[in-house]
Amino acid sequence: MPRILLTGGLGYIGSHTGFELLDAGYEITIVDNCSNSSERVLDQFETYCNTRPDFFNGDIRDSKFLETVFAQKPIDAVIHFAALKAVDESFEKRDEYFDVNVEGTRVLCEVMEQFGVHRLVYSSSATVYGVPERNPIPETARLSATNPYGETKLACEKLLIDVATQSPAWSVIILRYFNPAGAHQSGLLGEAPKKAANIAAAILEVLRGIRAEVVINGVDYPTPDGTCIRDFIHVVDVARAHVVALKAMDTSTGCKIYNIGTGRGQSVKEMIVAFENAANQSIATRVGPRRDGDVVVAIADPTKIERELGWRAQHTLQDIAESAVAWIRKSAHR
């Protein structure tokens, strides 16, 4: 079976995608430096998939390290998740974000070329759209990131488009995620970053007793309840999109870009209520200031990937909340 290299494969979306790939019959190799993840995730692979993936702990900016990985076993394709990803932190650590995200991607592409691996699925973000001119947002919308994290994703997209344009051997698919949340149905995987950087992760920290309250950054936006509206998508739906993208590259070259979202918008307050219903408890909140770089409304137009690849999100906001609550309750007993 084809062997897929997952950079950042122990992280939130990477690990869920690893589960889906193994379920689909692929073999996987994982590269991760564990800066925002843990090697304990390998135990969950063993429990759920009855296999422990090959794992290499290292930095994607280190070409010698990557060469060692590629030399171990033939790699058929790469799914590139590894990146720094906190919007607020990216303002404080702009240079580091560009170094890890953009330089890391450049080094990865060079090593892939060296080993004749020309198929890449790239983990991008809806942050590349900045403040959208309209919602839902199509892939053809104007690109203008409002924060350094989004700027790094946009720079990586341009780099990959150039790579695919300059060499007909390459097949690149860029997936622009909107707002992944939720947990795997097995209860073995969920979102547990070392620092919560989004509303879902913050809610989970309250439910786990790590923090006392969720800070709602802004309640004076021009939306029905005053909070930002996002396209929250179940992480398993996001993971499934990568399997679909890999299969599509069997018959395509060049670079294609797809939104990964539901096409439905829900507010931050609606997200909190969904978790309260799932957990059957109230969640303490506090109003905080607006965050730099936040847009008011961001909803995906997913019709392109539905039409071309047959992928569509299957889960609701309540599914997201219930799966995440089930995960934290199960993990509390491990």
UniProtKB/TrEMBL annotation:
GO terms, molecular function: UDP-glucose 4-epimerase activity
Pfam family, one: Epimerase
Names of required cofactors: NAD(+)
Alphabetical keyword list: Carbohydrate metabolism, Galactose metabolism, Isomerase, NAD
Catalytic reaction(s) noted: UDP-alpha-D-glucose = UDP-alpha-D-galactose
Taxonomy, superkingdom: Bacteria
Enzyme Commission number, as recorded: 5.1.3.2
Gene Ontology BP annotations: galactose metabolic process
Cellular component, GO annotation: cytosol
Annotated CDD domains: UDP_G4E_1_SDR_e
Record SUPFAM superfamilies: NAD(P)-binding Rossmann-fold domains
EC main group: isomerase
Residue ranges of the TM segments: none
Subunit structure: Homodimer.
Similarity comment: Belongs to the NAD(P)-dependent epimerase/dehydratase family.
Protein's UniProt name: UDP-glucose 4-epimerase
Species for this entry: Candidatus Magasanikbacteria bacterium RIFCSPHIGHO2_02_FULL_50_9b
Source species taxonomy: Bacteria, Candidatus Magasanikiibacteriota
